[in-house]
């Protein structure tokens, strides 16, 4: 048997099933003895933190490319057929029945994008909203949101302190909406 080079291919899947397809591909490659043909599966994700009522932080993985995964494989009739007929796979990205490999530059760019993406926060607050401080030394005070930093998960709230408007920087989990 001659060694053939593997490449990365983009596979279209039903959105929301990316992780299930990844697990299915690993199971199918073992069942059919294709470990040397289907080498790796990659779902591009990054972490997103949202703050729920009560200040609870919840960390979730968010897909960067919903509906797509990448598979490193050596394309043969059998490996192509197994991947193509995995549940929730709708097809390879490419021209017709010929899958087109992702170039090394594109793959590096995608992986670089994922590495660059830091943990991000989501909030329902908007500038101008009224906020009540629920934790910390200023608990019970309320003020107006003047700045939101979703990258760090911080809000700047203007509160009345000693009869002056004073900006206070707070974590998303320290405030709630009025």
Written description of the protein model:
With 178 residues, the protein is an alpha+beta fold. It has 2 domains: 7-121, NusG, N-terminal domain (Alpha-Beta Plaits, 2-Layer Sandwich); 123-177, SH3 type barrels (Roll). The chain has 3 helices and 15 strands. It has helices at residues 18-31, 77-84, 104-116, and strands spanning 7-13, 38-42, 45-51, 57-63, 68-73, 89-92, 94-95, 98-99, 101-102, 120-122, 130-133, 142-149, 154-161, 164-171, 175-177. Strands 1, 2, 5, 6 and 9 form a 5-stranded antiparallel beta sheet that branches. Strands 14-13-12-11-15 form a 5-stranded antiparallel beta sheet, with no helix packed on it. It has a 3-stranded mixed beta sheet with strand order 4-3-10, with no helix packed on it. Strand 13 (154-161) and strand 14 (164-171) form a beta hairpin. The longest helix has 14 residues, at 18-31. The protein is elongated, with a radius of gyration of 24 Å.
Average pLDDT reading? 83
Classified by CATH, the class of the largest domain is: Alpha Beta
Radius of gyration: 24 Å
What overall geometry do the principal axes of the alpha carbons give?
elongated
Number of helices: 3
* CA distance, first residue to last residue: 70 Å
Can you lay out the helices and strands and say which pair or pack?
Layout: E1 7-13, H1 18-31, E2 38-42, E3 45-51, E4 57-63, E5 68-73, H2 77-84, E6 89-92, E7 94-95, E8 98-99, E9 101-102, H3 104-116, E10 120-122, E11 130-133, E12 142-149, E13 154-161, E14 164-171, E15 175-177
Parallel strand pairs: 3-10
Antiparallel strand pairs: 1-5, 1-6, 1-9, 2-5, 3-4, 7-8, 11-12, 11-15, 12-13, 13-14
